[in-house]
Amino acid sequence: xxxxxxxxxxxxxxxxxxxxxxxxxxxxxxxxxxxxxxxxxxxxxxxxxxxxxxxxxxxxxxxxxxxxxxxxxxxxxxxxxxxxxxxxxxxxxxxxxxxxxxxxxxxxxxxxxxxxxxxxxxxxxxxxxxxxxxxxxxxxxxxxxxxxxxxxxxxxxxxxxxxxxxxxxxxxxxxxxxxxxxxxxxxxxxxxxxxxxxxxxxxxxxxxxxxxxxxxxxxxxxxxxxxxxxxxxxxxxxxxxxxxxxxxxxxxxxxxxxxxxxxxxxxxxxxxxxxxxxxxxxxxxxxxxxxxxxxxxxxxxxxxxxxxxxxxxxxxxxxxxxxxxxxxxxxxxxxxxxxxxxxxxxxxxxxxxxxxxxxxxxxxxxxxxxxxxxxxxxxxxxxxxxxxxxxxxxxxxxxxxxxxxxxxxxxxxxxxxxxxxxxxxxxxxxxxxxxxxxxxxxxxxxxxxxxxxxxxxxxxxxxxxxxxxxxxxxxxxxxxxxxxxxxxxxxxxxxxxxxxxxxxxxxxxxxxxxxxxxxxxxxxxxxxxxxxxxxxxxxxxxxxxxxxxxxxxxxxxxxxxxxxxxxxxxxx
Length: 572
Ligand SMILES: Nc1nc2c(c(=O)[nH]1)N[C@H]1C(S)=C(S)[C@@H](COP(=O)(O)O)O[C@H]1N2
Ligand SMILES: [Mo]
Hints:
By secondary structure, this protein is α+β, with helices and mostly antiparallel strands. The chain has 3 domains: about 5-155 and about 210-240, no CATH class; about 280-455, Sulfite Oxidase, Chain A, domain 2, CATH 3.90.420; about 465-570, Immunoglobulin-like. About 30% of the residues lie in helices and about 20% in strands. The chain has a 5-stranded mixed beta sheet with strand order 2-1-10-5-6. Strands 3, 4, 7, 8 and 9 form a 5-stranded antiparallel beta sheet that branches. Strands 11-12-16-15 form a 4-stranded antiparallel beta sheet, with no helix packed on it. Helix 2 crosses helix 5. The radius of gyration is 31 Å and the shape is globular. Molybdenum atom binds next to loops.
């Protein structure tokens, strides 16, 4: 980035490039702010960052998705968005510097990003209209204009080499504005009416005077202020869009249930500090989904369609109609297939909902085991997620739910308000569709849902697992009796036994806490006579079918992690 006149980098060129980069960033901010504003009128999910982020999530290989969940947990989406913004900022700087030298190319580069964002937006599964491209395109247009205008204030200096350093004094703003912007290299700057110089830029040094500093500062300030305004307005409009949904949730009073859950046995919770609460509070319940923007569904406008193969009486239900049905209350432990051995993506809640099997039966659905043609139930969410469950499992008598309540409250938005599906015994990605809007009966041969298209198994019952909650890894308990305790789960089969092994010793049976139901996890504890030194504690569970949690470690892909949880501690 030298002037070509000599090999010493010209400070003016350096400054110009820096200002170019700044222009690029301002153009980028303008583009995003305008996109945010326009998306409020189109669809919040159609904004470029959300659309590109969603596309990135969909294209993320399962192993990377798993890695992201493992390392960033529920912050994975924040990290992704920050990553996208970081990449955009980098490109904005590059385009800005480019625009200093090739103004049109820079602006075209900004437009290219608009095309990418727009294409991503209309290709999202929940996109129903090409208008979804509008936020990106409008944002990019404004961004391109900003970049063009800002770098226009810098091009005076750009043309300096044609009349290096001899350029006397300031070029008046008016004369410069009159210059054809497309000919910075060949422009007759040397012929500029320098005699008119002086009053326009009085306090500038010769070098600074080679660009339209005032014009640049004014334009940059205007761009920054306008984008701040557009961004703020867009955010508040987007916020108020969800108002009906928030109101519909606030107005919701869950009806009295016809079939309450039995009280949780007193002994279900072991009294050892550090063990997970038996019931996971809504705020602490793990969240795993692909939604960059949590869908805010207005319950009063919600509809659920049930249709497909073997559905002799298709149905469309409103939320009120759903609530008027017989409601049941059940404790169900949900687990994510991405949960590593010992991992946190498991939670237990008391759900309220409608028995899905009854609803399907009313629609004329028969499970394949009774001659029905459809073996797969595909649930679709408002955000385009598809989740496929075996019809036989849903209709075999277990408490598969269309859930509306979680721990006595309407579903939180993060967990699927107004309605989600739950099937005890199946991992979330094959059973627990949040923000559900449609149920289609089909076959496993005919259709692969979202995660199955991405190398996960078609069928995925939850594997028998156990976890040591306390002591924590690398804890330093004192010698003597140390309580080892945790949870074990084998939903819909039930936990029959939990054993603990110290180092390479024999398996010793742990004390099982009272069982709530076979659909919930079960706590256990083991009083360990701890001796000084380093020790490895390992746990294994046996389910009620007699299956012992296997020793063989497998990865989470394709159908859930296998293996045993170990914790290394040092006893002082
Ligand atoms: N609409 C929608 N539903 C979804 C998902 C999703 O990404 N989108 N993720 C599924 C997965 S992988 C799991 S493990 C559970 C998690 O439910 P939770 O976030 O309420 O814990 O939701 C399931 N339902
Ligand atoms: Mo999951």
